[in-house]
Known about the structure:
- By secondary structure, this protein is α+β, with helices and mostly antiparallel strands.
- It has two domains: about 10-195, Fructose-1,6-Bisphosphatase, Chain A, domain 1 (2-Layer Sandwich), CATH 3.30.540; about 205-335, D-Maltodextrin-Binding Protein, domain 2, CATH 3.40.190.80.
- Helices cover about 30% and strands about 25% of the residues.
- The chain has an eight-stranded mixed sheet, with helices on both faces. A five-stranded mixed sheet has the order 12-11-13-15-14, sandwiched between helices. It has a two-stranded antiparallel ribbon with strand order 1-2.
- The longest helix has 21 residues, at about 25-45.
- The protein is globular and about 55 Å long.
- The site of one manganese (II) ion (MN) has 4 residues, from strand 5.
Amino acid sequence: MQENTHTTVHQFILDRQNDFSFATGELSRLMRDIILASRIVNRDVNKAGLMDILGNYGSVNVQGEEVKKLDVRANEEFINALKRGGECAAVISEEDEETNHINTRGAYIVAMDPLDGSSNIDVNVSIGTIFSIYRRLSPVGSEVTMEDCLQPGVNQVAAGYILYGSSTMLVYTTGKGVNGFTLDLSIGEFCLSNPNVMTPEVGNLYSINEGNYQKFPEGVKNYIKYCQEDVKADKRPYSTRYIGSFVADFHRNLMKGGIYIYPGTDKDPNGKLRLIYECNPMAFLVEQAGGRATDGHTRIMELTPEKLHQRTPVFIGSKTMVLKAEEFMQAQAEQVNGG
Ligand code: AHG
Ligand code: MN
Ligand code: MN
């Protein structure tokens, strides 16, 4: 009989436990809880058409956006799993205006977008979950403070996403590189499929909602023109790829090389994506994979959040491409300042 060479994510985490800056197993247990919930959400996502969970929930979330039934279910599944596990002190979720206080004995804060790309749920297009883990700053046993929740991305101890795509993948980092796991449905386990993910220095994909072109800052418009120029030597013109699920767009670009931009505009200077549970975890991942993430000027992970649901412009992906986009943003800033 052929030997089973699958490395499950749980085995992988146990083997690497000493890589964590604190080898207590707490973070491993927290990851276990997130993974369990993601498998339940995966089941729901796969049955979505059959379970009467499509469509709108009939309310709007704190961002003023329509809430889908699956968003609500996913949020509940992750919070329930984290409550059962006991390691999590509080959860910041896209779906909840305030912090969910879970367990004062927990040492960790989890920030998450339980279902990302919700406009794609009803049409069987890839969606995802994004998570980010911090160690709390206040003493274990006390109430979680706002300072615990508003930590800069550089304080993350782990981050990752689950992509519910043509297969289901978990990609995460604890600050020692990025590893990807694919859900093997026949055994119900995530198995190592993409060890030590590194993103190409430069790719030929650019991802932006070009329907908003008229509203983009001049720097972004000029960068798009640059992407479209015919310069064979550096693979231009680049191809546009935009799914409208950040997780799926990010994952494709991480693997193939590319840049994802969600810029600010005059009307929405901070863009659309949320700093704490969308941009920071992806910034941590991309940097660990050799890429770059900024708001056009400043490193995403060095921004200090002032509000739980704060938004930020984001330029994220292959290092050379993000640096080039930043050059265009800088040129615009110098022009505005008469420099
Ligand atoms: P969510 O479904 O969690 O609200 O996130 C939607 C986000 C993100 O997934 C995606 O990249 C972006 O919105 C798409 O926005 P546009 O439709 O404005 O391009
Ligand atoms: Mn989202
Ligand atoms: Mn969401």
